[in-house]
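Quick one:
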Amino acid sequence: MSLDNNPYAKVSDRPERAFALPGQAYVDQAVFAAEQAQVFQQGWVPVARVSDVAAPGDYLSADLFGVPLVVTNVGGDLHVLSRVCRHRGLPVVEGRGSAKALTCPYHLWRYDLDGRLAAAPGMERSAVFDQASCALPRLASEVWGGWIFVNLDGQAAPLAPQLGGLADRLEAIAPHRLVTADVLTFESPWNWKVMVENFLESYHHIGPHRDTLQRSNPGLSTYEGLGSYLFTVLENPPADEAHGPFVVAAIFPLTLMFFTEGETPLGVWYELSDLAADRFTLRIHLLASPDFAAVPEFVAHYRDQVRAIHLEDVPACEGVQKGVASPFYQPGPLSHLEQSLWRFHRHLQQAMTA
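Output:
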């Protein structure tokens, strides 16, 4: 994308001089296409939790920015593979389960869970068929914090060394020990960045959450505790001793996480999928200790709490998407309470102008 058409070109290098993004960033199809190529394809994005494929033989299908993938557990070694058959292109598996092999339902080409082609009926007369060269491609992946991350273009620098500060901040919470207790799904008719930005600031507690989060964790007391090119941490101190702190964090571009603190931390992971310029599917993963996740009454209560908070955000996100499409929208200056947004914008600026 040329700088003349880049809505991130004017992002300030100083947070105190930061403005919101122009409307073009949220509504322009060309901007979204450039983000797919320069942000999503080149970044680290989570596709699953380790607990989703915990046992040898487990597999989980995923579609990441339109790319069909499958995560497999091969004797405890996790693989992220293309699940597109090397014959005629049909995805070899859908959904999740446990298996000894992945068999394409079209012509029964069978693949081991590490991607190697094990059998291909009726190919003995082909002069060009080479079984060894027909493996399912394996993608670059890393496990961090209990998530399985993927880099689609295979060129990104290793993830973990870039997250040292974040790992230290979350060490007591130990997110890798949490499992998925439930998943809430919402169709979200707004640009993906509207969701990320809403997640990354608690300034709006004073508005949409005035009767909930504002009472427990006042928005005007929040602040960015840590930040780098790749991540940000938003601290949410409690209003008083009757309430507890929580921490919001993001690994750019799309990993959004929230954790309570204390002896039994809880968390959420906002997974954004099926992205288009003006919509996406949101899956909110409720994270808890295995003991808590096994208690249906607890999970139901936690689910109701998280749903209620998100439903308070929905009108604001829908309204922002409508507003930034207006010809009269002009970006305003960001508050110091929105420094994590500036950090996110800087990441996009560097990715889109590289």
